[in-house]
Structure formats: C-alpha cells, structure tokens
Prior knowledge:
Chain A: Residues 6-240 form the ABC transporter domain. The structure holds two protein chains of two kinds. By secondary structure, chain A is an alpha/beta fold.
Amino acid sequence: MATQDVEFAQVSFTVEGGRQLLSDISLRVEPGTTTALLGRSGSGKTTLLRTVNALVRPTSGRVLVGGQDVSKTDVIALRRGIGYVIQESGLFPHMSIERNVGMALELSGKPKAEIAARAAEMLQLVGLPEEMAKRFPWQLSGGQRQRVGLARALASDPEVLLMDEPFGALDPLTRAEMQTMLRDLLQRVGKTTLIVTHDLEEALYLADRVVLLEAGRIVANLAAHEVRESQNEAMRAYVAATHRGGAA
Amino acid sequence: MSAFLHRYGSQIARLTFEHLWLTASAMLFASLIGLPLGILLTRQQRLARPVLAVANILQTIPSLALFGLLLPVPFLGDRAARLAIVALIGYALLPILRNTYAGILSVDPALIDVSNALGMKGLQRLVKVELPLAASVILAGLRTATVTCVGVATIAAAIGAGGLGELIFRGVASVDNGLVLAGAVPAALLALCADGVLGLLEKRLAVRR
Lengths: 248, 209
C-alpha cells in the first residue's frame, strides 16, 4: 500500500498575460486513496494534476508529495516515482509494447531480462495476453493501448498515480471495461491516485473523494458517497446536468 | 558509341569518382554542422529564425557567383576542391538544418510530455524519442541536400575543382554535344541513384502510427 500523500497548499498558477488557471487550491489526497478532479473543460483540473509531477510549476503555493516540496525535489527522481497516464495513451509509436511498458526501468538502467520480466508481469496485471509484448502500438485497439499506458505508469511501482482523462477517447463499452479493471487494480495495488475526468459516473465509481473545480477554484470537496445527496450548489448543478436524460 | 566510350570512358570514370568525392565530403561536413545545429535550434528557438534566414540566403546565391566570391578568400582559394566543398556545404546546409529543426518540433507534444513525466533527461528524450520519430523527416532533408549537391557540383568545374562538370564545360566550349552528355548523363544518374537509395531508407525509417 502507498504511504505517500499528495498535498496542495494554496496553489495558484497564472499564465503570461495574467490569466489565472489555478487560484488558491488547498487539498490533501490521503495515502492509498483515489481522488477524482471533476469539472468542465478549462476548469484547471489538468493543470492542477500536472503540478504534482512538476510538468507545471505553480506561480505561488506549494505542492507536496510524501511531505516533500515538489519544487525542491530533484525533478527526475520525483517523476520516476510518479505514474502518469494520459488520454490516447501516449505510447511511443516506434517502440514495442514491451519497451513502452519497461521504459521507466530502461531509464534507470535495469538489465534487459529484468525489464522483460517486469513488462510481462505488468501486462498480466492490466489483463493483456503475454504475446502483446512484441507488438507495436498501431497493432492494438484503443482500449488495449490504454491498458498498456497504465501498465507503463505502474511498471516502476510508483507511490503516486496521475491519470488525465484516461478513458476519454474510448467507446462506452470499452470505457466501462477499463473502469472495472482499474477499480479492481487500484484496490489491489493501492496507489495514491489523482484522476482527472469530466464524467461524474466515472468519478463516483473510481474515487473515494470527488473534488469539483470551477474556473481554477475548488467549489466542492466531498466523499464520493456524499455527492448525490449534497446540498452544495455547484455539485448539485453538475449532478443534475449528468442526469438530464435519466428517470431521476 | 563504343568508340566514344573507348575514348572518354576512363575520363568519365575518374570524373565521376571526383564528383562523388566532392559531394560526399560536402555532405559529411554539412551533416556534421547541420544536424547538431538543427537540434540546438529546437532547444534555443529564439535563434531559429535568424539562423534559418542566413541558411536561406546562402541557398539563394547563384552557385557560379558563390564560387567566384569565395575564390579570393585565403586558405579556401588555395585549392579548388577545398573551395568547392565549402560552397557545396553552403547549399546542403539549409535542407538539413530546416528538416532537422522541423522534424523534431513535429513530434507529438503529448509524447514529449510523457517522456518528461517518465523522468527522461534531455539527451535521453532526444535519443530515445525525438530523433527516432523525426528520422524520416531528417532523412528527407539529407536527400534534398544530396541531390542539390550532385547538381551544383557540376559547376565546381568552372573553378577547376574537377568533377563531371569538366566534361560539360569542355563540351560547351567546343560545341560538342556528345561531350556535354558524357558529363550530364552520369551526373543525372548519380542524382537519381542518391535520391532512390535515400528515399528507400527514408521509407524504412518512417514510423507507423
């Protein structure tokens, strides 16, 4: 189980020209739990996620991983301890699945045999057959590619897992399969996980806590089971928008 | 025809060899300058505009004029072949530089993101991700540069650097079309061969997505 937490302390981020993408965000993700960052496009959820592995440097405030200030940590070491999954998987098209999955180990100079063994183990973990290892990304379906993306993120056994709309590009059936697989997997491996999504159902299915962002601010921070009954105005609006077509 | 070949065959062979040598040396140096400089420009993008502009201007100088302009330069002017190679480098530089720069910048930003997030250092990212993905674009630049060099190298004969241009210039001076063709046909074949071989390599390096 993961022991590292992720904490945002009054994090703000302003881009050149003065537009503020994040305003005074304070939030703690408990070790081994999953928090969903929910919100419409442009609400700042991806930007917030990317401050954790220092792809974005906040203008003010601090981001702490395992109590360590991200801006004061060696960025290479920091990133090697954090898994990162993006939409459309971001697999390297010129590398085999095995090499993609084992990249984190390749970078830390592990021997080939160890990398191959680890890649095989990871493919099994995300429910892919072993013979996938020698194939290339273009030979896989979208869902399979996304599984490989997840396997790659988990290969170095990171404490923290960041996921940015991981299933956004998938059809509903594949998406549901992936959500089931991920939930099951997270329960087994227990990472401190932040997942960005605009899909309320996905957030409720996968996360322990749901944080709603609006224009760079946190407008709701609730345990997943409180979301539907919440009196929080912003959250009620989000829930209502999701259930427009439903019987509710 | 056989009498012609008998008479000029060995000359054609020698001059083809000279031509190849001029082109190959120029391409070697142009690559040694152009590839690292192109990579550097992707890291220092403020420099890209002025540097590419200079390379662009070099490219537009008529080759005969460039050879003439370089003639009085000390060291270069001492040896015709040396001067020719320097001028050829000037022409080869732009396609190499431009394609290296554009090829690396055309790599999907999401892949750069992932590379960084995996904890790749700058050089690792370059070698493992950027160069392999830009390889076919870079090679296309090398191909354009080579074909240009083979063509421009014929003019090098005007300053006595040798190469197949020698036959062409002699043919023109003596109004002997056969002699012009004896220089022009092998030069064209060289260009076609270089184009074909590098084109094949370019296809092989293309990454399927």
